Amino acid sequence: MKVLMFGWEYPPHITGGLGTACFGLTKAMVKQGDEVIFIVPKMYGDELFGGARLVNASDIVVNLSEDFYKQYWHNLSYVEINSTLIPYIGLEDYFNVINQRSLNGEGRITNFSEKKYEFSGKYGKTLLQEVERYALVGAQIAKNYQYDIIHAHDWLTYKAGVMAKKVSGKKLVIHVHATEFDRSGDNINQQVYDIERYGMDEADHIVCVSNFTRNIVINRYNQNPDKVSTIYNGANSLLSYDLPIEKTIKEKVVTFLGRITFQKGPDYFVEAAHKVLKYENNVRFVMAGSGDMLNRMIALVAKKRISKNFHFTGFLNSDEVKKLYALSDIYVMPSVSEPFGISPLEAIGSNLPVIISKQSGVSEVLKYAIKVDFWDIDAMANAIYCLINYDALSKMFISNGKTEVENIKWETSAKELRNLYYTLLK
After folding, report:
1. Which residue from 107, 131, 150, 295 has the highest number of Cβ atoms inside 10 Å of its Cβ?
2. Do 210 and 277 lie in a common domain?
């Protein structure tokens, strides 16, 4: 099977689980004999080798005079937008990113009339503009390469996938790793929702990373259930973070790691910490990450008078994340809406017991994890307290959890995806 696949990020240049998932999936697909042409907006030269053929969209020459552009021009809604939209980060972080890019001279994009577009490959003020230009490049790539089927990951690539389908006549599969309802709750960005809905309507099939996400796609985007399948992410491409680091503090360490945004439920973590600290002082809580709710969480910790036992690290790179896992005793993911959730799998691989919200896709595949409703801070606090004080319980979850994660394989995901491709091509 030869697959033309559109993505937005690829390790090591990632902002969340999307790039990690693309790497794990494509590596497994190549291993089973598939050929993957993986398109990214911008390559940096140090991408991890997973067997896929990586293509830099910034190197593609687009000839707008060709007939297929004129024929499918109505499929593009190109508008010059000076948008402050950056998925995954908030307003405060946005200004930091934009200012840094100005200093570094990043984000310069050629005029729309030119034939080659230089993508930033990031999430900046020209994001929606880049999504449209990526669609133009997608049409050109569809004409340049030979393949059997098209696969597009997440909303940023849906238009490119649709344009490739229009040009080539090949079947299109879109992969939903998250929806606008996960990122924003009911206060959705209408432009992003419209792009998501457009991609879903035009796709021949929709793959979701969990049944949790599948239900959102069916009910919130009005998609036919027969058109929507669940293929879970794998875990065996993740590195084991069992580092030989000696702890220098005697207290137990309970860790939250992720974007400090509405979606991740950081306020519920703080509330649970407050409850635990009423009965147990031999514990420290760590909130690692950045996001638009960071200042609010710092204020909430101060209001609860638990600052002595609570630490904020800010954003951590991959090596720092490994060290934090090694220093931690418990990992908590209290997400309000989590399509899948790779970080608990990383934590389990680092010999940590995990507490996860029931409102997550990963809760569908993990048996040896403590599952609570994100809003149930009493249950979350009780789970933390028990894992702190009952070593046998903690060791049971660590031992069985690690065995469980080792059996959540990307090879299984790749096999299910290949079967779906063949069904569509019959």
Report:
1. 150
2. no
Q: How many CA atoms lie within 13 A of 373 on its CB side?
A: 3
Residue 230, domain member (yes or no) = yes
Q: Find out whether the peptide bond into 334 is cis, omega within 30 degrees of 0.
A: no
Does residue 156 sit in the same domain as residue 288? no
Give the C-alpha separation, 284 to 330, whole Å.
11
- Those residues whose C-beta lies under 8 Å from the C-beta of residue 285, and which sit 6 or more positions away, are 253, 254, 255, 256, 269, 270, 273, 306, 309, 310, 311
Residue 239 lies in a domain: no
Residue 227 lies in a domain: yes
Distance CA 40, CA 244 (A): 36
Tell me: the pLDDT tens digits for 90-121? 334 434 444 444 444 444 434 444 467 778 77
Q: How far apart are CA 73 and CA 67, in angstroms?
A: 10
- What is the tally of structural domains in the chain? 2
Task: From 183, 233, 230, select the one nearest 343 (Cα to Cα).
Answer: 233
Q: Please, are residues 174 and 4 in contact by the beta-carbon 8 Å criterion?
A: no
> Is 245 a member of any domain?
no
- CATH of residue 390's domain is 3.40.50.2000
Q: Quote the Cα angle for 348-349-354, to 5°.
A: 10
Burial of 258 (0-12, 13-18, 19+ CB in 10 A): buried
- 326 and 351 share a domain? yes
Domain of residue 26 covers 2-234+410-425
287 membership: H or E segment, kind and range: strand 283-288
